[in-house]
Design goal:
Strand content: 25-35%
Shape: globular
Number of strands: 19
CATH topology of the largest domain: Naphthalene 1,2-dioxygenase Alpha Subunit, Chain A, domain 1
Number of helices: 5
Radius of gyration: 23 Å
Structural class: alpha+beta
Strand order of the largest sheet: 11-17-16-15-14-13-12
Length: about 375
């Protein structure tokens, strides 16, 4: 009997309920930690859409990711410890290598048994790039053919420095997409004013990317006044994109941000923000800061300005999640037309993904007909 979770089999629900119940497409690379956050000999649990994964770095520095359960009694391997190149269960001392294979059992194997039985848990492709750890939770055969996002500022001989900001938000990942791509929530940031007087100019979709363009002002931002030459008076537009499953923005080619979301379940999303700044101008000395001072300035900016700003979004998004859970049947009333395109893309990617999972129907998929209709 086949599982019924296909785009044809799922009963049509209101758009608001559809979008807040879908998951992410696993056939992409997702950030699960920072390189500095996982030391040699350390194991920790990460989670991708209800899948618990033991991420560990062996004692030689090799990076691995396997299913977070010992095949014996199902204890999480992340509660164990690293021994050599393996991770060891803390209960009976069973050892699993980076491919998920049980390679050693510390106790006797049982009566008349002399050979180690074939025991294995799932392993996941994992790699490091730009100081971040990326994991491919979907079909492992597709991993090599799927690229990371193109970030020119992090490539070449002089990559722009950054200090990642991690925030866990108790809300569905699609709410976060709508928040960061919709500048109409200017009022939420009325005290800090990172931008002002936004006006949606246009939006367009190109394959799996949606670009939204706003005319807006940045010269009221305290950070812009302090670090941007001319106080950001010449910056008056922003390009925001949802390049599934990643989100980002570009202000005049000088200030770029990327957001890499790790959806853990319907109500929890880990967010890894990368803020990239071009030349940082110090008005008091009327010159750009030297390279060796950029990291300290970025650290200060994160603590003083960016993290408090993100805390406002986190507060609002978690209240939005609670509001959805209290009023799941409430109609979707949305005035920003681009939001419906974000939702349609997320729905398409989710249904494409679950259609390929074991037990799904192999009937022809419906594409381009997702029921997302503005009021």
């Amino acid at each position: 009997m086949s599982n019924s979770n296909t785009i044809q089999d799922i009963p049509e629900k209101p758009t608001r309920r559809q979008i807040r119940s879908i998951g992410p497409n696993g056939n992409y690379w997702y950030v699960v930690d920072t390189e500095s956050g996982l030391k040699p000999g350390q194991v920790k649990k990460v989670r991708f859409w209800k899948q618990d994964i033991a991420l560990f770095r062996d004692e030689e520095g090799g990076l691995h990711a396997i299913e977070d359960r010992c095949a014996h009694r199902q204890l999480p391997l992340s509660s164990g410890f690293v021994k050599g190149k393996n991770v060891m269960c803390t209960y009976h001392g069973w050892e699993f290598d980076g491919c998920g294979k049980c390679v050693k059992i510390s106790h006797e194997l049982g009566k008349d048994r002399t050979r180690l039985p074939k025991i294995k848990v799932r392993d996941y492709p994992v790699k490091q790039q730009w100081g971040l750890i990326w994991l491919f939770p979907g079909d492992p055969e597709l991993a090599e053919s799927v690229s990371l996002p193109k970030i020119p500022q992090l490539e070449g001989e002089k990559p722009w420095p950054f200090i990642p900001v991690e925030v866990t938000i108790k809300s569905h990942f699609t709410m976060i997409v709508e928040n960061v791509c919709d500048f109409n929530h200017e009022y939420l940031h009325r005290r800090k004013q990172p931008f002002s007087k936004p006006r949606l100019r246009e939006w367009k979709r190109d394959a799996d990317s949606i670009h939204v363009y706003y005319d807006t002002k940045f010269d009221q931002s305290p950070a812009a006044k302090l670090f941007v030459e001319g106080g950001a008076r010449d910056l008056n537009e922003i390009d925001i994109w949802y390049q599934y499953p990643y989100q980002g923005s570009d202000i005049g080619g000088k200030y770029i941000h990327w957001l890499f979301m790790l959806p853990e379940d319907e109500g929890t999303t880990r967010c890894f923000f990368v803020f990239l700044f071009g030349p940082i101008h110090l008005p008091l000395i009327n010159r750009n800061i030297p390279e060796f001072l950029r990291k300290p300035i970025l650290w200060f900016t994160n603590k003083w300005y960016i993290e408090p700003l993100l805390a406002e979004d986190k507060w609002a998004l978690e209240l939005e999640q609670q509001g959805y859970e209290r009023y799941p049947e409430a109609p979707q009333i949305e005035l920003n037309p681009a939001v419906f395109h974000f939702q349609k893309l997320s729905l398409e990617k989710w249904y494409d993904y679950i259609h390929t999972q074991p037990g799904q129907s192999t009937r022809k998929k419906v594409t381009g007909k997702t029921a997302v209709t503005p009021l």
